[in-house]
Every structure is written in C-alpha cells, then in structure tokens.
C-alpha cells in the first residue's frame, strides 16, 4: 500500500461528553489528502453532536505529533487543480476547527512541522511535551506556509510566524513555542501531558455549554473570511508545488 493511502482517523466519546479525535500515519503522522479530508469531516461531525461537550485532538504514538504534508503526495501532483485540492485539505481542517462550536484541546506529544504547526495553532488550547519542537519548513522546499499561515499568525503573531517561516530549516523549542503562545503549558513527559489534558477536558465537560459556545465565537472573531482566504492560499501552494524548484527540493528531502 502506498503512503498516500495509509493512515487513520478515529474518534470516541466518553460518558462525560469528551470526544477524542486521533489521527495517525506510519510516516511520522504526516498528512496525505485522505487523512486531511477524514480529519475535517470528523471534527465537524463531533462538533455537531449534542452529547459532545469538548474535543481533544491528538495524534498516535509517542514521538512526532505531525510531520505536515505528505511528500509522497506532493511529488505526485501534476496539475494546478490537484494541487489546489490537496492544499485545500489543510484549509478544511483549519476551518473545521474554527467553526466548531465546541472548544478543542490540542495534545502535542512530539515535533510538529508545517501543517502540524497549523493544527496546533487551529485548536483553542494546546498542551505539549518538552519534545514538541516546531518548524515551518515550507520555504525550504520551494513553497510557503500559505494555508496554515493565518492560523499560526493569529496564535503567535506575525513576528514569531515570520521567524519560523524565514528560517525554514531551524527547529524552535517547545519552550519557545510556549513563550510565543502556541502552547499553554509544556510537560516533561507524555504521561504528565495526558494527565493535564484529562484534567482540563473534564473541567470543561462540566462547564456551561452555552458559555463555551459563546466564548468560542468571541475567540475567533475576525476570521469570518477565512473560507475564501484559505482557498486563495491553497491555490498559491498548488501552483508553486508544480515548479521545477519544488519538485527537485522535495526529491532531495526524500533522499535524506
């Protein structure tokens, strides 16, 4: 089975109304289009359920949180429409998080690259381990974090986002990400992280659902045009991924 067709998204709801959504992929939890589509669909479905009080978004394993876009799928893109469709997958996930009437807690157990940083930025409250370094590597392969950029900028500001974008090969530590506001707290181990996520999720599950819904709307004020904005950004990436520069850069990365 090709890497493009691998991976999973699964969800469950416990008796307290905490919905847990997990995605995973054998290649460091990278995100092919199939997984992006399933993730956006699952977030939207969980948010619409009356018995769901709060959502936890996580990835599988105890190492990488998310390696971002699937290189195998990027290299297979041969026309603009396919490129736009692929990058629209990231836009759909971000917009699903944004439009969710339920608060979303992010659990980041390891490194986050590109789209993974976008996911961490799109949740409402993000907790991580000390191993959860971040990097926006898109410029290094000839594109840019165009789709995830609005979410990242909203969370950590233009200055910090531009640092990640311009110095595209350098990791920033989890502590740096906490200082910039991407992570609310950083823990020494996955066990401590999970304890913190569970405590917060249970507190929110007992909070007033209507209050949380209203707060969610306030938190995301000013993003009402993102449906169109992120489509435009997806087209930018979809065009750039066809260039010889990007094709050669991705192939070079794949050989490392």
Would you summarize the structure shown here?
This protein has 256 residues and is of the alpha/beta class.
Tell me about this structure.
This protein is of the alpha/beta class. It is 50% helix and 14% strand. The protein is built from 10 helices and 8 strands. It has helices at residues 33-48, 71-76, 80-99, 115-122, 149-166, 174-180, 190-205, 209-219, 226-240, 244-255; strands at residues 8-13, 18-24, 54-59, 104-108, 112-113, 125-129, 134-135, 185-187. The strands form 2 sheets. It has a 6-stranded mixed sheet, sandwiched between helices. The model has no long low-confidence stretch (mean pLDDT 96).
Record the strand order, biggest sheet: 1-2-3-4-6-8
Largest sheet: 6 strands, mixed
Fraction in beta strands:
5-15%
Q: Determine the CATH topology.
A: 2-enoyl-CoA Hydratase, Chain A, domain 1
Q: Could you name the ranges where pLDDT drops below 50 across 5 or more consecutive residues?
A: none
N to C succession of SSEs: EEHEHHEEHEEHHEHHHH
For the record, what CATH class applies?
A: Alpha Beta
Class by alpha and beta content = alpha/beta
Count of β-strands: 8
Distance between termini?
A: 22 Å
List keywords for this structure.
256 residues, alpha/beta, 2-enoyl-CoA Hydratase, Chain A, domain 1, globular
Topology:
Blueprint: E1 8-13, E2 18-24, H1 33-48, E3 54-59, H2 71-76, H3 80-99, E4 104-108, E5 112-113, H4 115-122, E6 125-129, E7 134-135, H5 149-166, H6 174-180, E8 185-187, H7 190-205, H8 209-219, H9 226-240, H10 244-255
Parallel strand pairs: 2-3, 3-4, 4-6, 5-7, 6-8
Antiparallel strand pairs: 1-2
Helix pairs in contact: 1-3, 3-4, 3-9, 4-5
């Amino acid at each position: 089975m090709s890497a493009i067709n691998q991976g999973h998204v699964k969800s469950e709801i416990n008796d307290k109304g905490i919905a847990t959504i997990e995605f995973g992929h054998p290649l460091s939890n990278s995100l092919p289009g199939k997984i992006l589509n399933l993730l956006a669909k699952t977030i939207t479905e969980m948010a619409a359920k009356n018995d769901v009080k709060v959502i936890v978004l996580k990835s599988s394993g105890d190492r990488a949180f998310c390696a971002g876009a699937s290189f195998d799928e990027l290299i297979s893109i041969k026309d603009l429409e396919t490129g736009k469709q692929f990058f629209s997958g990231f836009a759909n996930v971000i917009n699903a998080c944004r439009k969710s009437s339920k608060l979303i807690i992010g659990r980041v157990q390891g490194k986050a690259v590109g789209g993974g940083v976008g996911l961490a930025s799109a949740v409402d409250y993000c907790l991580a381990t000390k191993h959860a370094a971040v990097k926006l590597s898109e410029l290094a392969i000839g594109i840019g974090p165009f789709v995830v950029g609005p979410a990242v900028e909203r969370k950590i500001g233009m200055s910090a986002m531009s640092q990640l974008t311009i110095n595209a090969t350098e990791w920033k530590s989890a502590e740096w990400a906490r200082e910039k506001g991407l992570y609310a707290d950083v823990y020494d181990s996955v066990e401590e992280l999970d304890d913190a996520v569970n405590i917060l999720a249970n507190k929110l599950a007992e909070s007033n659902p209507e209050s949380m819904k209203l707060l969610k709307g306030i938190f995301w004020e000013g993003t009402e045009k993102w449906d169109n904005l992120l489509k435009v950004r997806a087209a930018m990436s979809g065009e750039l991924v066809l260039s010889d520069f990007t094709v050669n850069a991705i192939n070079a990365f794949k050989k490392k």
